[in-house]
Amino acid sequence: MKKSTLATMVLAALISAPSAFAYEAGDILVRAGLTTVAPNDDSSNVNVDALGGNVGMGVEVDSNTQIGLNLVYMLNSNWGVEVLAATPFTHDVTLIDTADNGLGLGDGKLAEVTHLPPTVSAVYFFDTQSAFTPYVGVGVNYTIFFDEEFTNAREDQTFQDLSLDSSFGLSAQLGFDYQIDDKWLINASARYIAIDTTATFTVADVKGSVDVDIDPFVYTLSLGYKF
Predict the structure, then answer these.
(1) Which residue positions does the secretion signal occupy (predicted)?
(2) Contact in structure between 207 and 163 (CB atoms under 8 Å)
């Protein structure tokens, strides 16, 4: 009888004891690693007012990898608030000239643009009671563009005054933490961010514009520490 009672008490203690891997309210996770922004871009046609609007050209935006940083504050064992930051991303913008418009601008690199995409998310961690902890999250993103510059070759074609509007949009992500021990962890995540902007410029002193839905997938692999 005593053995049975003791076994029951031990089992109850094990069930009620927190897992060594479980997150708790007040935990702070700091992660740093590599983040790749891979645009899933779709642009409208380039519009030049003096040429009747649509001139039959579009643009594409390439990928870029930088140092990614994020911080998570745990509200309880499942819910946390995450802030995503990174060093500035610089992207090549390519002109796609498929129209017989007589402009002779040609395909090729058009410009470079730099942006920062800080994102704040609500994140839900699944309680697996193991070192592997998957999570999902949704959030809001604000992307600011700066250092927008046409290439020298495009400036020779009279492209000037490039400017991209800042963007505000939603984001969604999934990822996981793999806890090496009670402090260190490895993180991987993938997220989608809605980034839509309008680029304005002049060519031969005539105003032009193009709408670009960048809408990137953002991939991160990082090392983290739990405080």
Answers:
(1) 1-22
(2) no
Distance CA 181, CA 131 (A): 8
As a whole number of Å, the end-to-end CA separation of the chain is: 44
> Number of structural domains, the chain?
1
pTM of the model as a whole: 0.81
Q: Does residue 7 belong to any structural domain of this protein?
A: no
Percent of the chain whose predicted confidence (pLDDT) is above 70: 79
Which CATH number is 65's domain given? 2.40.160.20
- Hunting for tokens 């009747």 — which residue is that? 52
By C-alpha distance, which of 136, 145, 141 is closest to 163?
145
Structure tokens at 136: 């999902």
The widest CA-to-CA distance across the chain, in whole angstroms, is 96
- H-type alpha helices, 72-142: none
Residue with structure tokens 């009671």? 129
Rounded CA gap, 217 and 182, in Å? 31
Domain-located, residue 5: no
CA atoms within 13 A on the CB side of 95: 24
Q: Is residue 76 part of a domain?
A: yes
* Best CA proximity match to 79, nearest among 153, 130, 17, 136: 136
Is residue 18, in this structure, part of any structural domain at all? no
